[in-house]
Design a protein that fits this description.
single chain; about 350 residues; alpha/beta; Isopropylmalate Dehydrogenase; 2 domains; ten-stranded mixed β-sheet; globular; binds 3-isopropylmalic acid; binds magnesium ion
Length: about 350
């Protein structure tokens, strides 16, 4: 049965990298490997410019009616002066909340061909394969009360609140444990239990939930130490599970271990397996429109989409192999360029992946 994909390209380099991912989808469609129908919709600054809202109601409705959403990126300096409720990022957060995408999977895998592109020594990162499982619809990103108020003294007070219920912690831990069962069976739960009561509870729930997974080796780490360990000895980690904000920060850190944030895909899933797929990098306004952005994170996000939401694991494998093959051929976008390799632009990289598919 045909599956529905909603494409929301967004801002900055979003449209350029999504165009390359579309070539890959269309090639798989053309050779009969997948059966999908594709629609597109507005999000982020592009949606604000067109209709005055970073997440138009039609976009969220179309997303709800799809099996999966492919997102490019949102945001840019042009929209920074707007009130926070109208900024492009609200479009992204509204999608996450509106679709209930509580489980964010951010794999950090080092392609052996790129060991020299990392700022860390090759022996520290070679063979790296970490899965960060970030809680995505709770925590300080969504907790109430929030906002800035003016006190009687005239001074302003800003508030954001870290909130988790036990059930929110339990379900994200289960996702992490289920994933770990298919990998190295090791989960590190990252918290700040020495200071924040909410995450002390997080730790207790993680321990309690792990009782259902006797084969899982569960450990705990404070977030400051986890940041340090990620750059000191990252290969000690298999699966990491953590709160929305800690996951935001640690996943950027893990991304750089792999050489470039331009390589990393992500999946955001809800309880029904419906998902939104996006590169973990942002809209990179400084290079937008120049045709130099790395489309591989978006192309790899399509692979995750085929695997997690569209039940097409063989097609997903083919994409991942094709990416590895173009790296073997020595093709590099500027962000992963190194001596002796051939530098290519966004479209040439996308075309090379399509060629390597067959
Ligand atoms: C991410 C991004 C987003 C986040 C921004 C763009 C709202 O940094 O997906 O990691 O903070 O979650
Ligand atoms: Mg982030």
């Amino acid at each position: 049965m045909s599956k529905k994909i909603l494409v929301v390209a967004g801002d900055g380099i979003g449209p350029e990298i999504v165009a390359e991912a579309m070539k890959v989808l269309q090639a798989l469609q053309a050779d009969g490997s997948i059966d999908v129908s594709i629609e597109d919709a507005l999000i982020g600054g592009a949606a604000y410019d067109a209709v005055g809202d970073p997440l138009p109601a039609e976009t969220l409705e179309a997303a709800k009616a799809s099996d999966a959403v492919l997102l490019g990126a949102v945001g840019g300096p042009k929209w920074e002066p707007l009130h926070i409720s109208k900024r492009p990022e609200k479009g992204l957060l509204g999608m996450r909340a509106g679709l209930g995408l509580f489980a964010n999977l951010r794999p950090a895998i080092l392609y052996p061909q790129l060991a020299d592109a990392s700022t860390l020594k090759a022996d520290v990162v070679s063979g790296l394969d970490i899965m960060i499982v970030r809680e995505l619809t709770g925590g300080i990103y969504f907790g109430q009360p929030r906002g800035v108020e003016t006190l009687p003294s005239g001074e302003r007070k800003g508030v954001n609140t870290l909130v988790y219920t036990e059930s929110e912690v339990e379900r994200i831990c289960r996702v992490a444990f289920d994933i770990a069962m298919k990998r190295g069976k090791k989960v590190c739960s990252v918290d700040k239990a020495n200071v924040l009561e909410c995450t002390e509870m997080w730790r207790e729930v993680a321990v309690k939930t792990a009782a259902d997974y006797p084969e899982i080796d569960l450990s705990h780490m404070y977030v400051d130490n986890a940041a340090m360990q990620l750059v000191r000895a990252p290969k000690q980690f298999d699966v990491m599970v953590t709160t929305n904000m800690f996951g935001d920060i640690l996943s950027d850190c893990a991304a750089m271990l792999t050489g470039s944030i331009g390589m990393l895909p992500s999946a955001s899933l809800n309880a029904d397996g419906q998902g939104m797929y996006e590169p973990i990098h942002g809209s990179a306004p400084d290079i937008a429109g120049k045709g130099v952005a790395n489309p591989l994170a978006t192309i790899l996000s399509v692979a995750m989409m085929l695997r997690y939401s569209l039940d097409a694991p063989a097609a997903a494998d083919r994409i991942e192999k094709a990416v590895s093959q173009v790296l073997d051929q020595g093709l590099r976008t500027a962000d992963i360029m190194s001596e002796g390799m051939r530098q290519v632009g966004t479209a040439e990289m996308g075309d090379a992946v399509v060629a390597a598919l067959s």
